[in-house]
Amino acid sequence: MNLNDQFAGDDILIDDELADEAAEGKQSAAAAPKAAPRLPQMMRRIPVTLTLEVGSARISLQELMAIGPDSVLPLDAMAGEPLVIKVNGAAIGRAEVVVAGEQYGLKVIDLDGLNLDLIAS
């Protein structure tokens, strides 16, 4: 399922009014979300692909050809570790999987590779 078709970008981003209030300190520090970087209007609707990476495995072509319906491949990540958040293939942070109604969602743990300040200025 493509989440771009299901959700508009405004459902995910903090709206401009809330971001302005947070930036001006009108809300308490505990209640205010981190102020979102200000992007030029024309850049706000550029689509990006957000993915969660559970882990990876390096295998030979022979092993790939032997994969069947009951095959199990060990990954390089430990069970319970946070997943890697990637935007267009570049790692930007870590998250946990959560259930949101009947769908999966992600709970962001940290964002250490997301630097929109460079393109916003």
TrEMBL record:
<dbReference type="Pfam" id="PF01052">
    <property type="entry name" value="FliMN_C"/>
</dbReference>
<keyword id="KW-0472">Membrane</keyword>
<dbReference type="GO" id="GO:0071973">
    <property type="term" value="P:bacterial-type flagellum-dependent cell motility"/>
</dbReference>
<dbReference type="InterPro" id="IPR036429">
    <property type="entry name" value="SpoA-like_sf"/>
</dbReference>
<keyword id="KW-0966">Cell projection</keyword>
<protein>
    <recommendedName>
        <fullName>Flagellar motor switch protein FliN</fullName>
    </recommendedName>
</protein>
<dbReference type="GO" id="GO:0003774">
    <property type="term" value="F:cytoskeletal motor activity"/>
</dbReference>
<dbReference type="GO" id="GO:0005886">
    <property type="term" value="C:plasma membrane"/>
</dbReference>
<keyword id="KW-1003">Cell membrane</keyword>
<feature type="domain" description="Flagellar motor switch protein FliN-like C-terminal">
    <location>
        <begin position="43"/>
        <end position="110"/>
    </location>
</feature>
<dbReference type="InterPro" id="IPR001543">
    <property type="entry name" value="FliN-like_C"/>
</dbReference>
<dbReference type="GO" id="GO:0009425">
    <property type="term" value="C:bacterial-type flagellum basal body"/>
</dbReference>
<dbReference type="GO" id="GO:0006935">
    <property type="term" value="P:chemotaxis"/>
</dbReference>
<comment type="similarity">
    <text>Belongs to the FliN/MopA/SpaO family.</text>
</comment>
<keyword id="KW-0969">Cilium</keyword>
<dbReference type="InterPro" id="IPR001172">
    <property type="entry name" value="FliN_T3SS_HrcQb"/>
</dbReference>
<keyword id="KW-0282">Flagellum</keyword>
<keyword id="KW-0145">Chemotaxis</keyword>
<dbReference type="InterPro" id="IPR051469">
    <property type="entry name" value="FliN/MopA/SpaO"/>
</dbReference>
<keyword id="KW-0283">Flagellar rotation</keyword>
